[in-house]
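G.,

No rush on this.
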Amino acid sequence: MVPDVVDENARKTPHHYRVAPFRSAERLSGKSRDFVVERSLETLGRLLGLSVQDLARRLEAAYLHDWRTDPFSRGAYSYGKVRADGAQEELGRPVEDTLFFAGEASDVSGNNGTVHGAIASGRRATAEIVQRVGSSKSVE
């Protein structure tokens, strides 16, 4: 079974993340978008007791990224080595208030190495940009 990842915006905008860990990712890597979406709908259908056809009718959009075939990550994710305290803060620190960084490796909320961490760090970086630029818009 593929675990679900839901962030706090799920209540505001209906969406659902699917993350395929190790062996599941191996089986899905290199497959077509349609194949991966079909397998995801099958899994979700089993969990919710709904048919794939019903879920497909309700599906507005599906996005996926094959991290194993991504030439920049090649399936990698971050983890802190021994004595790496403070590494996330350093990775997320803006450079001269003009270059801002986000990504799971720079998350300081305790979720580095995860989708939650990537989302949280994106929000953090956005808030930093808004603060630096002096925009009056709020960041959610």
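When you get to it, here's the other one too:
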Amino acid sequence: NRYIHHCYDVIIFCLNTLTNVVETSDSQQVIAGLEFVEPEPIIMTSSDVAYTNDFGGGSSKKVPAVKWLSRWLVSQTESYRDAVMKGKFGAKEEPNHRIIDEKAVVSEPEHQRDLEKHEEEFLVTAGNGFILLTCLMRHRGQCYSDEIDEAVQKLRKSVVSQMPQQTGVTLMIKTLKAFCNFYHFSIGDLSVAVVEPVMKLIVELEKI
């Protein structure tokens, strides 16, 4: 996470490009079969201090690319996850701000808070990533087949397996709603180009 600030624009560009590829081609079968070679980090010691070498260097293992991406995207929600899961994250009373999740209930006042400045990039990254995952997990009627259905089910299983325990796709849904709130509050009515398509994806995600 400490490296994300330095390559934030590149990450968003890559996520959006992959989303466009998924939406304009029959790529779910290919993506379902992709694997990522994940290096095992080495626990190194210096005097009395142990630390992890994030660049790997030990043995490596292959993991499904979607599973790895899902796990990484979940890690981007770490600092604000409780607020997203338990309340109207980012909900404001300003007239130009729309509360996306009208049915959300805030059980404790401390869960109704705004993004900290350093969390904005993490929310936008997770939001764009969850948009990609949702596109991978949904059926598109015009290209439905048994093979694609099998690929979609495999992708869904990979994604859900990396979500916080027993939450299914709830974290994705709530993060995407917070993502929409953030865009709407940041750029007002201009956000419709982003918010409306994402809200349609949320509806599909809620059916999974």
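The beta strands are 35-39, 42-46, 49-53, 60-64. The chain has one domain: 4-90+109-206.

Enjoy the weekend,
O.
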